[in-house]
Specification:
Radius of gyration: 22 Å
GO molecular function, one term: kinase activity
Protein name: Other/AgaK1 protein kinase
Organism: Ephemerocybe angulata
Strand content: 5-15%
Order of helices and strands: HHEEEEHHEEHEEEEEEHEHHHHEE
Number of domains: 2
InterPro entries: Kinase-like_dom_sf (IPR011009)
Low-confidence stretches: none
Helix content: 25-40%
Strand order of the largest sheet: 1-3-4-6-5
Largest sheet: 5 strands, antiparallel
Distance between the termini: 62 Å
Keywords: Kinase, Transferase
Shape: globular
Structural class: alpha+beta
């Protein structure tokens, strides 16, 4: 009988017996929690989804003992919220909870089942949270190191820390799960609309501030992509909603640090070289496999996302286009740091009048030289 270790002797005995009786359905090896990347044929996809749900369902009593009630998928995807407790979010929820901009419990359904290592839950107080497997039993991951570094009192007190706070660390048989508030809307997308060009600037500045903070703490994200960013609102999926980007109310954050590189805090980031992590954004940027500086890659990936939103202002403010052309015109080794990018952004914003900043955007987003118009 394999020993399944938990924090107490009684829990260890309980879960060792339960795991043995169920045939050890949960591996503590991170390599067995692989994201689903192939969606055909359908029968294989459904089998993989079922296997993932079986793990989380098996662990549900463990999470419930910590006041976390996981979403269920008894009827197949998407995962649906528990019937109890009811959601307690409101439209004006304060940090760290997301604002309520959905209409029904069904709007909370979770369809990122392909992530495998991530599952939604609701705490005893009715708040929506995310449980994420951050480390396996065999070794401490850079992701877990990043969570620890980003959640010290000093780190959390820095307003540039654009990451979700860890509410709990839970240990199960050598694995470490982190619990964070659920923010569920992509900020680099057209569904939550912008009222002014100033709000577009705030989006870009917020994330470059966040990247500056990550890099100061010697963390390279290595997978900056629109699906790996969130804002503090849970919306009805696919519905356009406005008035949610107001400065002072909206918060933005990076998520998904599974590819990150967490270096010693005295590391010289200009001298760092590592094998490039070939995630989604790399193909769009035409970056090739091989050695790279991951901190420079981060800047380029975030620039790509920021350009898609902020450059819609180029028609009335040509300097916005010139700003992005300046970054893309740099040789790779001369890629500006987030601090330099921020300085340029601040200078550009300060050069604009209130009238210019308060203009409505000219379209949804910018894509390969054209502004995509509103419907």
């Amino acid at each position: 009988m394999k020993l399944v270790k938990l924090d107490s002797l009684s829990e260890t005995a309980q879960w060792t017996y339960r795991s043995w009786r169920k045939g050890y359905p949960v591996s503590n090896n991170l390599k067995d929690w692989v994201p689903i990347t192939e969606f055909r044929p359908m029968d294989v996809l459904l089998r993989k989804i079922s296997e993932s749900w079986a793990r989380w369902r098996f662990l549900s009593p463990f999470f419930a003992s910590h006041g976390l009630h996981i979403y269920h998928m008894e009827e197949g995807p998407p995962a649906k919220p528990p019937k109890y407790p009811l959601s307690q979010h409101t439209g004006t929820d304060i940090w760290p909870w997301a604002r309520h901009a959905f209409e029904t419990e069904e709007d909370l359904s979770f369809d990122f089942y392909n992530a495998v290592r991530v599952w939604p839950a609701r705490d005893d107080n009715g708040h929506e949270v995310i449980i994420r497997l951050a480390s396996g039993a065999s070794e401490v991951t850079d992701e877990l190191r990043a969570f620890h570094r980003l959640n010290t009192p000093k780190a959390r007190s820095d307003p540039r820390n654009r990451t979700l706070p860890v509410l709990k660390y839970l240990n199960f048989d050598g694995m470490v799960f982190v619990v964070m508030p659920r923010w569920a809307t992509e900020p680099f997308g057209p569904f939550v609309t912008f009222s002014t060009i100033s709000e577009l600037f705030h989006l870009a500045e917020s994330f470059f501030e966040g990247l500056e903070f990550l890099h100061e703490n010697r963390i390279a994200h290595r997978d900056i992509y629109h699906t790996n960013t969130v804002m503090n609102v849970i919306c009805k999926p696919g519905a356009q909603q406005g008035n949610l980007r107001v400065k002072g109310e909206v918060k933005y954050a990076f998520i998904d640090f599974d590819a990150c590189l967490t270096l010693p805090e005295d590391a010289d980031i200009d001298a760092v070289r590592s094998e490039r992590e070939m995630r989604n954004q790399m193909a769009k940027l035409k970056l090739k496999p091989g050695m790279c500086n991951p901190f420079k890659d981060d800047v380029l990936c975030l620039t790509f996302e920021a350009e898609g939103m902020l450059r819609v202002a180029e028609g009335s403010i040509p300097e916005v286009g010139q700003f992005f052309d300046w970054i893309w015109g740099c040789d790779y080794e001369e890629t500006p740091s987030p601090t330099i990018v921020l300085q340029k952004l601040h200078q550009l914003r300060e050069s604009l009048s209130e009238e210019e900043l308060n203009q409505p955007p000219a379209g949804k987003f910018w894509d390969r030289g054209r502004i995509v118009p509103f419907n």
